[in-house]
Specification:
Blueprint lengths: L8 H7 L3 H7 L12 H8 L3 H13 L13 H34 L5 H39 L13 H24 L11 H42 L1
Helix pairs in contact: 1-8, 5-6, 5-8, 6-7, 6-8, 7-8
GO molecular function: metal ion binding
Keywords: Cytoplasm, Iron, Metal-binding
Main location: cytoplasm
Length: 243
């Protein structure tokens, strides 16, 4: 039986995504830093481990018929899902959020100078994520899909130009952490997406969209860091063992 010390936060969330809400409540990063154990994370945050585990176990013991078990999905299907769901979400929402943030800076920047930093951070996020997703769509995901199809057909597969799938995965995970850190700053500057008392409807809508964007980004990164990437590395290892 796996012990508390061995199971990572990411594995808990991969088992049941409802646990993500508990980790978020305590300010524990389950996506970019999901490779830590609960004990490690609780110690760093000053959170009572037993209290957190009781809440986690309550969630896990409650039946959840509506949850999607992404861990059981074939890797090519999961890669397609991430691309068509989360990549498209980022592409669509950045095009809406960028002009909204620009407008807020022009109208409210004098009274709320933090808007300029929020805008600058999101512009950086939009640009970096666009490049990041293209690298996944053109390089990493096609190879993962190729491995999944070869495994199904019981065929061998040629090594990729990047040597091993671990190389682009390490790069993607580093970039995930960068964007996660960027949104920590955005959340702090927006007072956890709470519009100021003098905020207009554009203020409220923009902050609500930023909060939704962060939530989607967390799920997006979780699916890759905690499910797709580890499974892809395991599959590649099986191919190398057959050589």
């Amino acid at each position: 039986m796996e012990t508390l010390e061995k199971i990572t936060i990411g594995e808990y969330v991969a088992k049941d995504f409802r646990t993500a809400a508990i980790f978020s409540k305590y300010g524990i990063d389950f996506c970019c830093k999901g490779n830590r154990t609960i004990e490690e994370a609780c110690e760093k945050k000053g959170v009572d481990t037993d209290q957190l585990m009781n809440q986690i176990n309550t969630v896990l013991a409650t039946k959840n018929d509506s949850a999607i078990d992404f861990k059981t999905w074939p890797l090519d299907l999961l890669a397609d899902y991430i691309e068509k769901t989360h990549h498209r979400y980022v592409e669509e929402k950045t095009q809406i959020l960028l002009p909204f943030l620009d407008k807020l800076c022009k109208v409210h920047g004098a009274n709320h100078p933090e808007l300029f930093e929020i805008n600058e951070l999101f512009i950086g996020c939009a640009g970096e994520l666009a490049q990041h997703m293209k690298k996944e769509e053109l390089m990493l995901f096609p190879f993962i899909k190729k491995m999944a199809k070869a495994a199904l057909a019981e065929e061998q597969i040629a090594k990729p130009q990047f040597g091993t799938v671990k190389n682009p995965i390490a790069m993607m995970m580093q970039e995930h952490e960068t964007e996660g850190d960027r949104f920590v700053k955005i959340a702090a500057l927006t007072n956890n997406y709470t519009p100021p008392a003098d905020g207009c409807s554009t203020f409220r809508v923009t902050y609500a969209m930023l909060a939704d964007f962060e939530q989607d980004l967390h799920k997006h990164i979780h699916l890759e860091n905690n499910i797709l990437f580890p499974s892809a590395m395991l599959l590649e290892k099986k191919f190398s063992e057959q050589e």
